[in-house]
Amino acid sequence: MMYDAFLLLGRSSDTELYPAPRFVTHIDDQAIRALTKYYSQALPLSKTHGVAILDMCSSWVSHYPAGYKQEKIVGMGMNEDELKKNPVLTEYVVQDLNLNPKLPFDDNTFDVITNVVSVDYLMKPMDVFEEMRRILETSGLAIMR
């Protein structure tokens, strides 16, 4: 691929790094509050009809505002036990994006895609970004932090 310069050399498979659930937050409380506040302003209003959101590199918490709901919030992450515990998700997909950056969704599926504190772990970020563009609605929003 033309983006080989972005590859992280010497990295083992993330599947090997995350075999057991890790119920930790990866940012401090102040950052969580700031992110949740940002989401409260950037995400569609809770319970907006027809809204579909993908939370990439998700875990047991998405930092969306308390009580946030949509018809479809899909979490994509590395550990099924963590994803099962995430209260905002309506469904989830377990996938190592470093082994397979192809996203298992139809074109124009999501109105919003979020990926917080994980983009720097992607070994093929440009491939993942191209896939995000494919599955995001034309007027959709991608939030990367």
UniProtKB/TrEMBL annotation:
GO function terms (MF aspect): S-adenosylmethionine-dependent methyltransferase activity
Domain Methyltransferase type: 82-143
Entries under SUPFAM superfamilies matching the protein: S-adenosyl-L-methionine-dependent methyltransferases (SSF53335)
InterPro entries, sorted: Methyltransf_11 (IPR013216), SAM-dependent_MTases_sf (IPR029063)
Protein name: Methyltransferase type 11 domain-containing protein
Organism annotation: Hordeum vulgare subsp. vulgare (Domesticated barley)
